[in-house]
Amino acid sequence: MRAFINQPKRIPLILKLGIWVSEKVTGKTMLPARILAWYPKAAIGSGIMEFLVAHEDGQMTRRMLKLIRMTASHAAACPFCIDMNSYEHRQYGITDEEAQALHGDIEEISSFSEREKLAITYTRLISSTPLKFHPDIVEKVKAAFTEREFVILVSTAAQVNYWARLIQALGIPPVGFGE
C-alpha cells in the first residue's frame, strides 16, 4: 500500500534535519513528515506541534496520555495512528485487555480508574463528527480534572485528530510499529 502522493525528490535541509530526528527516535521511515515537505510551512508547524505535545504533567500521567492518544486514534479510525499510538502500550501500564476495550465497552474493564474512563469518554466525544458536547459529561470531566488537565486532555486528543485527518487524507499506510 502506498500513499496517494510521493515525497518530493528534494527536501529542504532544515526539514531533512527534523525528519532525521523523528526517524531516529521512531526507528521508522516517517512518511507523513516526508510528504509534508511539499509544503514546508505545514511541515514546520506540524513538527512544532508534535515537539510541544504533553508527555506527562502532574496527574496527567504517561499512561493517561497514552490512553487518550490510543482512544483518539481508534475514534478517528486511522490505521497509521492506531499503529503508532498503540505501540508499546504495555510499557505505559496498559494491558492488552484495556487496549482492546478502547474501541469497545470500557465499563467492563475494572482496571480503568474513573478519571481514565472520563478521559476516554470525552476523547471519544471530541473525536466524533459532528461534535456534540453533552453537558453532563462536560461537567463530570470538569469536576474530575483541573483546568490545566482539561486543556491537556483536549489538546492531546485534538493533536491526534489533526494527524489522523492529515495522514488519512494523504493515504499514508501504517509503518508497522507493532511488528
Structure description:
The protein folds into 2 domains: 13-51, no CATH class; 62-169, Up-down Bundle (AhpD-like). Helices cover 59% and strands 0% of the residues. It contains 9 helices and no strands. Helix 7 packs across helix 9. It is globular. The protein starts with 12 loop residues before the first helix and ends in a 10-residue tail after the last helix. The mean pLDDT is 95.
Topology, element by element:
Layout: H1 13-26, H2 31-36, H3 40-51, H4 62-75, H5 79-86, H6 96-101, H7 114-126, H8 135-144, H9 147-169
Q: Features of this protein?
A:
single chain, 179 residues, mainly alpha, AhpD-like, 0% strand, globular
Structural class: mainly alpha
Can you tell me the CATH architecture of the largest domain?
A: Up-down Bundle
- Look at the structure and give the CATH class of the largest domain: Mainly Alpha
Estimate the strand proportion.
under 5%
What do the pLDDT scores average to?
A: 95
The N- and C-terminal alpha carbons lie at a distance of 16 Å
| Overall tally of domains | 2
Order of helices and strands: HHHHHHHHH
Number of strands: 0
Mind summarizing the main beta sheet? Answer: none
Residues in helices, as a percent range: 55-70%
Do you know the CATH topology of the largest domain? AhpD-like
Low-confidence stretches: none
| Global Rg | 17 Å
Question: Rough shape?
Answer: globular
CATH homologous superfamily caption of the largest domain: AhpD-like
Number of H- or I-type helical stretches:
9
